[in-house]
Amino acid sequence: MCGISRVVALGDRTRRLNDEDKKKIEGRLSNSLEQIRHRGPDSTGTWISQDGRVALGHVRLDINDLSPSGCQPLHSTDNTVHAVVNGEIYDYDKLRTEMEEKIKYRFQGTSDSELVLALYKYYGLSFLSQIRGEFSICLFDSERELFIAVRDRYGIKPLFWTIQNGDLLVAAEIKAFLPLGWKPEWDVKSIVGGDFQIGNPTIFKNVQKQYWDSRYPDKHIKDPRTEEEMIQGFREHLIDAIKARLRADVKVGVSLSGGIDSSVVAGVVNHLLREGHQIGSESENERLSCFGIAFDEDSGFDESSTANRTADFLGVKFYRKQMNEEELAKCFADATWHDEQPNPDLNFIGTYALSELFREKGFRVNINGQGADEILGGYNIFLPDFLREPDTTLGVPTMSEDERRSELRKSEEILNNVYQGKLDLSGSSVARRQLNNTLTPAQMTAAFPPLPFKQEFLPRNNAVDPQLTYAESINGIMLEEVRSKWHPLHTAQYVFSKAHLQNLLLSNLGDRGEMAHSIEGRTPFLDHHLTEYANNLPPSMKIRRDKNRRWVEKYVLREAAKPFITEEIYKKRKHPYSAPVEFPVGGPMQRLLRDLVTEENIANLGFLSPHGVASMVDKAFETRETPLFRLVICLAQWVVLQKRFGVAMAQSEAERLETGTLKVGSNVMLG
């Protein structure tokens, strides 16, 4: 079932459960599930092992199999394997038939989630390689006394874990830990070093995430396929990924912006409906419903007019949510609470509001275009790394070496101007040498406004290097492939996907904003069959110059999508999804930020210097400096998180020594 969640506690194996202990566990588990009830408002389920060592909890959002047999936790027919599943598993009919034939498994309902039990019974731990979809799973094998917690390949569905008083706690959102004895503290080391944006750490101490790795081809091996074969292969994989995501027992819609990614998804879905395929619970002749966000027209960030023209071209129903300044300010705090981490752009509020529109219109599933930029080199920051080395895999270079070097210099200079000269263009840093000399990590780092950290929380010599954190978050075997075998564009895509895609975009602009309003997001561009195909395409199939010598991103997608999109969308260049950064003085946004970004509130965080922060708000609105505005909204989000979670004020090593919370002589990591 999609949109569900879980909390797991794995305790002392010698403990034996009596009725009173069971009631205590049930009470804590129920309170924990209430924190994330928005993820599954339809029903709640719990299961506790006889010895009390394992407790599973689940809140259900009805998507497939709306009958009671779809409720969770799930139990195998012999009652030895127990699981909770968050998300959607595709190829259901094929896998169900396979399990019925191979092990005579008796399914109790028609829920896709029940496949997990049968697949585990047959394949053991390798069952994960059989699963296609967006998911996170907690499974307990009582016979083997084995507990596993896993998530999908790209982290589309969240999974967090921590250990409290000897218990392992696992949940879809961090706030679910609050009733289970967890006392939130800032992970200042992770915040200062930017680790929470990159790998397993979060902004909270001792709360972790989980990840998977992807691979790219050896740049020294030529690709024998023709260009047309690759375009056709990509088109087939994309259509198959979208077709798999149409199935549901509830209403399914498509998010539609003015860009190519969502337009392709809408176009392909519309094509499939005309071929006779059904989408969700809609009747066979029902038109496709699309949903979009509209910012104020004079903001420079509104693409809704393009989306309108695409909707007219496709002949679909199109619902729009108008996001003016007042709406952005009204949703700011709640959207931040659901995201559980700061974002230097107000676009996360747009996602949050769009999901509310889906819910208001009676829909429960949103098929979206997330992930295309990451798998196909869609951001302008990828261009220098595409040009860093020749692409020899196609056999014939697409440009001369002199031309490539000239274009590389120009692309780096343009981006360095965007980032106000802050990029390391020398290629001499340790991090860049480890990461195939790519520039993308430096650009990712420069995109976040530097916070005013207190001096006592900074490492010695202020040696904070997020780029090095990117490099050191990769295991040694993969790092050697990155350095010696991959084209720099693929290295850049890999780093971006492991960092911003998983830690920011799929969270703040994906699951968290969607599930805040009980909407399941489905991401066909991150279907692992499609991404593995895309990863193995030559760099020159992702970025290419057109006949006017302009650089075109996502080349293979544009060519594959021609039958499904307008000429306007085909020719349109990338416009990143972003929210307005300029608002009138004295308006709702400035009043909100004035209330949040005060010296007292910043001081209560503990790790930031409060001096002068209040004046930053007024200055940001008066001067309209974008970097300053992004800093201010980040500060405001830290304040919201501190207040909503009740996070203790961070203390430096010296402060902990003074208060007696740190023993002299212990090994300490600051924060």
Automatic annotation (TrEMBL):
ATP binds at I293. It comes from the Eukaryota. The keyword Amino-acid biosynthesis applies. It holds the Pfam family GATase_7. L-glutamine binds at D112. One of its GO terms (cellular component) is cytosol. One of its GO terms (biological process) is asparagine biosynthetic process. One of its GO terms (molecular function) is ATP binding. Belongs to the asparagine synthetase family. This is Glutamine amidotransferase type-2 domain-containing protein.
